[in-house]
């Protein structure tokens, strides 16, 4: 394993070096939080794909393939569909807004103070998303170094916090680009063909496994619908995703670069399911489906290649974790702390706050590491995050983009009713039940429409500013 260890150590050292390099470029709030809004198509596509394809997409995607076969691709597939929908229909408009957070968008659209409440919901989502990625470190470092779970979380989390704190979005962009390349080589070009060959090829896989493993809908229609509701719609409104849209240098870059990233996600989804199916042939009685990825890597890959593929798994986890961390810190500082202090600047106004944002990334990073140590269940944490996001914020965000009659009172009612309904229903039905997001989303929609129609329309001057921002030229965005 010495060669594999060397590959991993070099990879981690490279992440820290890029954090140091990024620190020299991040000299303004715009540079630190959104990479100066100047990423080109290639870098934008790579970093967007990197952030949405995390540990759940890699380790979890292979695990679903191990359990359900090819239909296990649906979870990651719906993530790709969400990114495609965001890129084709909304990203150009979002990029023109020239804001830093989703809550700033809500205030700009509705002309009211929806920021703190929506900020709390978005903060809870990004925090739990960062926690789930951090929890995945324990699995990977356990395979690599046989480390204690707590030590593994602290080690992996500290590296992500370090390079994110140093250079902000520039460091994260550089590391994500490397992580994108490592994932592509490690998972798509190496692990996928090797796993299929080791399993005897598709003919042998079909001979040894039930026909349900090759049914594209084998995972179940209700499960697919839930994935669409949570992940596809979640991609449309998450702060971690929007903050990447804000980095595009033009609305054309945001649209077409995101389309490329979404298409890549679809290929990654199928690759994970095929790898998991091959693992089922090779190891039919694993204790947990989530062990499939680590087991096939450890037992079937040659020295050196094994280290690169494990580095790919680390890349997947770290890209999502760093993106969620900077999103969490941005929301905590801009949408909660600044508003509670009464320091709210007009949307789009520049102010040098690099030091303050750096402090918030460090504080949120410590909170993420501490929460990850205290929690055990990755799936439950991720479910809580997406239920809160979709149930509380989907309706007011999409309503603001699509329905001019929506009002600030309707948005506040929607966030409050939807969020509380999701929390109450999770307590009643259980965290992993489908009902919380179904009924929570319905309650949010009813509250938004009813209260908006019962209150005065949004001021014409506010809507005029909103339309002017949406129609800004790419050079202004």
Automatic annotation (TrEMBL):
CDD domains: SLC5sbd_u3
Protein name as it appears in the record: Sodium:solute symporter
Transmembrane segments: 6-23, 44-68, 74-95, 116-140, 152-173, 180-203, 223-242, 263-283, 303-332, 359-378, 384-403, 410-431, 437-455
Highest taxon of the lineage: Bacteria
Family designation: Belongs to the sodium:solute symporter (SSF) (TC 2.A.21) family.
Subcellular compartments: Membrane
Cross-referenced Pfam families: SSF
Predominant location category: membrane
UniProtKB keywords: Membrane, Transmembrane, Transmembrane helix, Transport
Keyword hit for Transmembrane: yes
Membrane topology term: Multi-pass membrane protein
């Amino acid at each position: 394993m010495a060669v594999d260890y060397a590959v991993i150590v070099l990879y981690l050292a490279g992440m820290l070096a890029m954090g140091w390099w990024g620190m020299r470029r991040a000299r303004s709030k715009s540079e630190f939080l959104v990479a100066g809004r100047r990423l080109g198509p290639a870098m934008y596509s790579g970093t967007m794909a990197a952030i949405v394809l995390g540990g759940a997409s890699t380790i979890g995607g292979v695990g679903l393939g191990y359990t359900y076969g090819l239909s296990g691709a649906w979870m990651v597939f719906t993530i790709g569909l969400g990114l495609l929908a965001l890129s084709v229909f909304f990203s150009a408009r979002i990029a023109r807004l020239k804001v830093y957070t989703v809550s700033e968008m809500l205030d700009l659209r509705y002309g009211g103070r929806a920021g703190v409440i929506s900020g709390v919901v978005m903060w809870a989502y990004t925090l739990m998303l960062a926690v789930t990625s951090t929890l995945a470190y324990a699995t990977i470092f356990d395979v690599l170094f046989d480390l204690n779970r707590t030590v593994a979380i602290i080690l992996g989390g500290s590296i992500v916090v370090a390079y994110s704190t140093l250079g902000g979005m520039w460091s994260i962009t550089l590391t994500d680009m490397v992580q994108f390349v490592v994932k592509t080589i490690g998972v798509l070009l190496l692990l996928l063909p090797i796993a299929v060959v080791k399993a005897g090829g598709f003919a042998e896989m079909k001979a040894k496994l039930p026909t349900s493993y090759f049914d594209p809908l084998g995972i179940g229609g209700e499960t697919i619908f839930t994935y669409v509701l949570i992940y596809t719609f979640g991609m449309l409104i998450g702060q971690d995703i929007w903050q990447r849209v804000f980095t595009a240098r033009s609305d054309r870059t945001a649209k077409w670069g995101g389309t490329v990233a979404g298409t890549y996600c679809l290929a990654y989804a199928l690759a994970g399911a095929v790898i998991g199916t091959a693992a089922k042939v090779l190891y039919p009685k694993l204790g947990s489906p989530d062990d499939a990825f680590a087991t096939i890597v450890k037992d079937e890959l040659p020295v050196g290649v094994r280290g690169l593929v494990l580095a790919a798994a680390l890349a997947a986890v770290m890209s999502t974790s760093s993106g969620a961390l900077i999103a969490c810190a941005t929301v905590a500082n801009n949408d909660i702390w600044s508003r509670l202090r009464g320091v709210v600047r007009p949307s789009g106004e520049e102010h040098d706050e690099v030091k303050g944002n750096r402090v918030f990334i460090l504080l949120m990073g410590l909170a993420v590491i501490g929460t990850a140590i205290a929690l055990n269940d990755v799936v439950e944490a991720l479910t809580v995050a997406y239920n809160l996001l979709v149930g509380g914020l989907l309706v007011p965000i999409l309503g603001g983009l699509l329905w001019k009659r929506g009002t600030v009172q309707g948005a506040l009612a929607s966030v409050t009713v939807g969020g509380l309904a999701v929390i109450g229903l999770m307590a009643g039905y259980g965290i992993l039940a489908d009902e919380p997001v179904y009924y929570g989303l319905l309650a949010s929609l009813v509250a938004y429409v009813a209260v908006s129609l019962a209150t005065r329309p949004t001021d014409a001057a506010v809507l005029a500013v909103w339309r002017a921002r949406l129609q800004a030229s790419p050079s202004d965005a």
